[in-house]
Amino acid sequence: MSIGHALLALLEAGPRHGYDLKRAYDTHLGADRPLHYGQVYSTLSRLLRNGLVEAVGTESGDGPDRKRYAITDAGITDVEAWLAAPEKPEIYLQNVLYAKVVLALLSGRDAQRVLDAQRAEHLKHMRELTKRKSDGDLVDQLICDHALFHLEADLRWLELTAARIDQLAEQVRTKPEGDT
């Protein structure tokens, strides 16, 4: 996700300090991956340089002076374009798990063990997400649903691959090198 676009969108509600932006981001978007303060301020500096935000005042407090930032018209236009543009679907044609299965087969190792270990890891994470979902608010429920649906798709792939492992082993072993 674009941190810059997220901060711009959060600024549409009104001017904020970097600390307030970090807190809002962490609350709404970064529960599992909170922003570092350095990310916030380096991103604000870039947005300021690019004319997407402006400093609208400085306040003194117990610590260093705090700048308040506001989104500019150019920033609003940028957020609108970003929100309107669909994300490219993540297509996993060359993922690590597939590579591990093929390399296990090529090296004479038990690829089924690779699949079983991964299945156990997926199920463990699904149990954790299901618990989090049942204990969480609507935001947590939606985030967990998204992750659970992806894990379910991975599990379907694991089962399909396990069912076809003998065919895959034969094809991998007999395919000439350099043949794509």
H/E topology pattern: HEHHEEHHHHH
Question: What overall form do the CA principal axes indicate?
Answer: elongated
User: At the first level of CATH, what is the class of the largest domain?
Assistant: Mainly Alpha
Mean pLDDT across every amino acid position: 89
Poorly predicted regions: none
The largest pleated sheet is described as: 3 strands, antiparallel
The CATH fourth-level homologous superfamily of the largest domain: Winged helix-like DNA-binding domain superfamily/Winged helix DNA-binding domain
Report strand %. Answer: 5-15%
Radius of gyration from the alpha-carbon trace, in angstroms:
23 Å
CATH fold type of the largest domain: Arc Repressor Mutant, subunit A
- Number of strand elements: 3
Structural class: mainly alpha
Strand order of the largest sheet: 1-3-2
Please bin the fraction of helical residues: 55-70%
In DSSP terms (H or I, runs of 4 or more residues), the helix count works out at: 8
**Spatial gap, N to C terminus:** 33 Å
Q: Provide the domain count.
A: 2
* Architecture per CATH nomenclature, i.e. the level-2 architecture of the largest domain: Orthogonal Bundle
